[in-house]
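User: Hi! I have a protein structure encoded as tokens and I'd like to know what sequence might fold into it. I'm fairly new to this, so please keep things simple.
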């Protein structure tokens, strides 16, 4: 078999990230229609991710945010999105490049996408092989959840 010099895998990922980008733009411009809401998982150590040191300490590898009822100032560009959320009643601004996004899921219609993230440290093999603990649920308005239940094994 010939070597894939076109990198179709990367071309396909970029095209599918366009779906995420467009969904976020719809949410920004029109709000979330019906029961739609988004779980977005991203590598916190990926280049360009901007989160507070408190959140980075709590989620050193991966974080999943939920955009449903309480989010503000959603901005979407070609390269990244930013959004204001609250965690334990403390407002936080998150900036996430699309290159850091690992997963996108809309449970209202069972639609999900997974992506490979390059340039981010992966958890150690021992960590990756043990079952993931459920993400702790912070008090207040924000919610961070694990997408493990929705991932293909």
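Assistant: Happy to help. Inverse folding works backwards from shape to sequence: for each of the 153 positions I chose a residue that suits the local structure. Here it is:
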């Amino acid at each position: 078999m010939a070597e894939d010099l076109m990198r179709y895998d990367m071309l396909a990922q970029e095209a599918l990230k366009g779906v995420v980008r467009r969904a976020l733009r719809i949410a920004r411009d029109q709000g979330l229609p019906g029961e739609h809401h988004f779980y977005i998982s991203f590598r916190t150590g990926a280049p360009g991710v901007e989160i507070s040191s408190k959140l980075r300490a709590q989620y050193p590898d991966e974080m999943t945010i939920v955009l449903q009822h309480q989010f503000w100032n959603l901005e979407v560009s070609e390269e990244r999105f930013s959004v204001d959320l609250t965690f334990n009643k403390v407002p936080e601004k998150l900036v996430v490049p699309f290159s850091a996004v690992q997963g996108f899921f809309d449970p209202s219609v069972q639609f999900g996408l997974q992506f490979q993230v390059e340039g981010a440290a992966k958890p150690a093999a021992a960590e990756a092989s043990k079952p993931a603990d459920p993400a702790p649920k912070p008090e207040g308005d924000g919610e961070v959840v694990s997408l493990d239940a929705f991932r293909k094994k």
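A useful reference point when you look it over: Residues 123-143 have pLDDT under 50 and may be disordered. Feel free to ask if any position seems puzzling.
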